[in-house]
């Protein structure tokens, strides 16, 4: 298949490395899958002939599949967003796939994401079943996998209370303090960015959610959170395993997916228990004996405390607190920032210069400076765009049949918003694989100042999703990433590490392809 040169196949392929080892199916597994598929398809075609298709119009365009199986064998099991993005270049901003009766709609433009997932949010805010994570992996109550409806609204209300824009503003001094502490730890350990990054991101969220103070990398809670992320990532992105696409496959013995898969599901279950129920029970016990530090957990316990001493909505509370794995995505954005600063030292210098001009080296940046540092803001936007941490988004599900621009979108479709295609749209972001904060800026020669362009889309519009399921932690994430970047830039030169012969060792552009070797130099 040829793809337009505007999409760099190499860059897209790089995303493969961000997710764990390929889920490789053996011949016997394919055989089992094929038999099941035929039976399913037979049922679907004999029982499922429906008149609506003709009444509502045609499906969106899409790659031609084969009889019965549709596009099943064209959708890669690993990193499907790469193929999704190649197809976007051919079939456009919205296209349709079918796989063994499962209808899949892929959205590749921000406008359509907004039209469907935001403006028609009532219809498009459900989640697919996410069978692997919820039913096998023990994340039954996680908000991110919750179906749209009663419990969802309760959980969103709980989380919004703590993370809406004004609530997030209250965390600014904590985030600024943590960023300073992070910078101090880099002074002490100038070659250990990655482990320090994970520790401080964990520290931010643990102290906020559970009032737990993280002091070292060996902290059990941080280790548990890292393990939870590892197990979740090893099973592919959310909603993309074949069992997620065809939940009926989950009824078969899990071992048909290989022993590695079974082992990982087991690890995932254990990690889910350790990062949700266990910390909650510890904090609850401390709350009742009066030793708990104030946190989101204690706030929610207090608000739901019954006269008989029980706590109502405990599952919902747990589901809201159990968001560490998504939160740890901020780690990926900061990794991207460091890699970019090492590969593009001239951009690093420009950002440092803009900070120095404003602060004159007299103090560290604060949130009040954010509006006066357009270059750093543009850098933050480019970090979000260049390597989206959730390249296929998190899938939604449509509840009812719908018609959009004359195309039919059937009820029960799995809706992917393909973040990678949106962020690499060459019309909005020319030469998309280039790391270039300048795309968001204009330079006034008279004032000799940068300002942010208003005619270029802010990647924040897409990076955090859409509509009623939009990331509730976006204000917090934006603040943490920004203050950390600004603090590091004002205090350090970020340099590539050298090997034992003194030769420069640039880190891989893909951050999961080994350690990020760098040095922080004051
Ligand atoms: C770089 C940082 C982050 C990125 C890029 C990010 C991105 C996303 C995206 C794309 C979604 C899916 C939205 C949708 O389905 O339309 C999401 C959901 C979610 N995010 Fe974030 N997020 C980040 C940090 C955070 C933080 C710091 C928190 C918590 C404070 C958080 C909590 C959540 C939760 C709970 C959901 C599930 C919402 C639901 O299903 O209703 N995220 N995030």
From TrEMBL:
It comes from the Eukaryota. Heme binds at residue 471. Its cofactor is heme. The chain crosses the membrane at residues 30-47. Pathway: Secondary metabolite biosynthesis. Belongs to the cytochrome P450 family. This is Cytochrome P450. It comes from Sistotremastrum niveocremeum HHB9708.
């Amino acid at each position: 298949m040829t793809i337009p040169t505007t999409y760099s196949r190499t860059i897209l392929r790089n995303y493969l490395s961000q997710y764990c080892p390929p889920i490789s199916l053996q011949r016997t597994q394919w055989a089992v899958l094929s038999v099941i598929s035929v039976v399913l398809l037979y049922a679907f075609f004999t029982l499922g002939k429906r008149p609506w298709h003709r009444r509502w119009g045609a499906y969106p365009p899409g790659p031609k599949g084969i009889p019965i199986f549709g596009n099943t064998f064209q959708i890669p099991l690993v990193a499907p967003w790469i193929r999704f993005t190649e197809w976007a270049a051919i079939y456009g901003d919205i296209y349709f796939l079918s796989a063994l009766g499962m209808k899949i709609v892929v959205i590749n433009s921000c406008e359509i994401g907004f039209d469907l997932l935001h403006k028609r949010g009532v219809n498009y805010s459900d989640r697919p079943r996410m069978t692997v994570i919820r039913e096998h992996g023990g994340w039954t109550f996680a908000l991110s996998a919750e179906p749209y409806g009663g419990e969802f609204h309760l959980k969103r209300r709980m989380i919004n209370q703590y993370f809406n824009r004004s609530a997030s503003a209250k965390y600014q001094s904590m985030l600024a303090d943590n960023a300073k502490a992070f910078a101090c730890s880099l002074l002490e350990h100038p070659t250990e960015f990655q482990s320090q990054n994970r520790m401080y991101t964990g520290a931010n969220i643990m102290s906020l959610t559970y009032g737990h103070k993280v002091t070292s990398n060996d902290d059990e809670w941080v280790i548990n959170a890292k393990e939870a992320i590892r197990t979740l990532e090893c099973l592919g992105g959310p909603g993309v395993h074949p069992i997620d696409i065809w939940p009926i496959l989950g009824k078969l013995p899990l071992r048909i997916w290989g022993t590695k898969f079974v082992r990982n599901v087991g690890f995932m279950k254990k990690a889910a228990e350790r990062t949700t129920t266990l910390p909650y029970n510890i904090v609850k016990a401390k709350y009742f004996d009066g030793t708990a530090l104030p946190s989101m957990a204690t706030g929610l316990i207090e608000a739901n405390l019954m006269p008989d001493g029980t706590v109502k909505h405990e599952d919902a509370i747990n589901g809201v607190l159990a968001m560490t794995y998504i939160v740890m995505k901020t780690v990926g954005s900061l990794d991207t920032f460091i890699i970019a600063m090492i590969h593009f030292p001239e951009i690093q210098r420009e950002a440092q210069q803009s900070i120095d001009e404003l602060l004159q080296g007299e103090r560290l940046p604060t949130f009040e400076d954010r509006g006066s540092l357009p270059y750093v803001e543009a850098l933050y936007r480019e970090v979000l765009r260049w390597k989206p941490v959730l390249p296929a988004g998190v899938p939604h599900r449509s509840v009812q049949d719908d018609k959009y621009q004359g195309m039919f979108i059937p009820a029960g479709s799995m809706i992917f918003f393909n973040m990678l295609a949106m962020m690499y749209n060459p019309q909005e972001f020319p030469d998309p694989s280039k790391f270039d904060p300048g795309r968001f800026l204009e330079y006034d020669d008279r004032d000799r100042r940068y300002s942010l362009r208003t005619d270029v889309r802010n990647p924040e519009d897409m990076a955090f999703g859409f509509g009623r399921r939009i990331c509730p932690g976006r204000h917090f994430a934006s603040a943490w990433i920004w203050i950390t970047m600004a603090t590091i830039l004002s205090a350090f030169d970020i340099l590539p590490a050298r090997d034992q012969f003194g030769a420069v060792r640039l880190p891989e552009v893909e951050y999961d392809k080994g350690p990020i070797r760098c040095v922080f130099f004051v």
